[in-house]
Amino acid sequence: MSIDQVLALTTTVIANFETLDVCRFGSFSYAAGSQIDVRRREETDLFLQAVMPPALGFLAETSLQIVNGLFALFMERNNIAWVARTRPALAFLTMFLGRTAALKQGEMGAYGDSQELYQANELYGHLFNSLRGSLASVFPPLPEMGQPVSPVEDLHAWQFLATLAVGASVEQQHTLVAEVREKVLEKVQLAKSGHLPAELAAALTANVNLFLNALGLDASQVAT
Fold first, then answer.
1. Angle between helices 87-106 and 155-166 (to 10 degrees)
2. What is the CA radius of gyration of the chain?
3. How far is CA 174 from the centre of its chain?
4. Distant-in-sequence, close-in-space partners of 115: CB < 8 Å, separation ≥ 6
5. b/e code 12-22 from CB counts within 10 Å (16+ = b)
6. Which residues, in sequence order, are CB contacts of 8 under 8 Å at separation 6+?
7. By C-alpha distance, which of 97, 15, 23, 108 is closest to 59?
């Protein structure tokens, strides 16, 4: 697809994200292991593999002005606290934050005190405030008794929280830690329990460290 076609696709998906089946029926609120959960999981995987790559690839290379515009559109047209319970939304939000951080770090001289930089900071604050009090809800539920633990299930959540932590103020970092503290402890304790294969335990720890390392911390420092 051409750049214009990818931009049109990305804009359409973002503007209507809340009405898409992968959002309306792909929320973590469905019971894990149920028939609807399995079907929606397959549909979400297909969406992530077929629709998201061109959109995310475009965002990874575009300007701050366009990132801000699409980020603002996503915020305006969707209930963020609700859509953030889906993997595709977390992928979009992670890319918005990651691309913004990369542009601000690599091209700070080009933006200075520009309107684009001001808007990027405002969008970050709006996103954070929209999720304040419900940050732990970006994680999928624990698997039912007897179901295998998979680090892949909550990878999107840890990636998102890591990019959110990078741009956070000290006060926002304290909020982040307070709201997801139980999730951090839960995963670190599980990884250190000795009940999991070493490879799986290492993967769980690596996920948690995505977030903790962004705060200058490490899972090895977590008391269990």
1. 30
2. 18
3. 19
4. none
5. ebbeebbebeb
6. none
7. 97
Which amino acid type is present at position 11? T
**In angstroms, rounded to a whole number, what is the distance separating the alpha carbons of residues 44 and 98?**
22
Cα 119 to Cα 100: distance, rounded to the nearest angstrom: 11
Please name the residues in contact with 186: beta carbons below 8 A apart, sequence gap of 6 or more: 142
Amino acid code (one letter) for 88: P
Instruction: Tell me which DSSP letter residue 27 carries.
Output: S
How much of the chain is helix, strand and coil, in % rounded to 5? Answer: 70, 0, 30
Q: φ and ψ at 87, to 5 degrees? A: -65, -40
Cα 144 from chain centroid (whole Å)? 23
Query: How far, rounded to the nearest angstrom, does the alpha carbon of residue 56 sit from its chain's CA centroid?
Result: 13
Amino acid, single-letter form, for residue 209: N
214: number of Cβ within 10 Å: 19
d(CA 79, CA 27): 13
Kindly report, residue by residue over 83-110, the tens digit of the pLDDT. 999 989 999 999 999 999 998 877 655 6
Q: Give exposure, 186-195, as e/b (b: 16+ Cβ within 10 Å).
A: bbbebbbeee
Q: Which two structure tokens, joined as six digits, stand for 78?
A: 């969707």
Model confidence, pTM: 0.89
Reduced to 3 states (helix: H, G, I; strand: E, B; else coil), residue 63 is: coil
Q: Is the pLDDT of residue 112 over 70?
A: no
CA angle 73, 27, 49 (to 5 degrees): 75
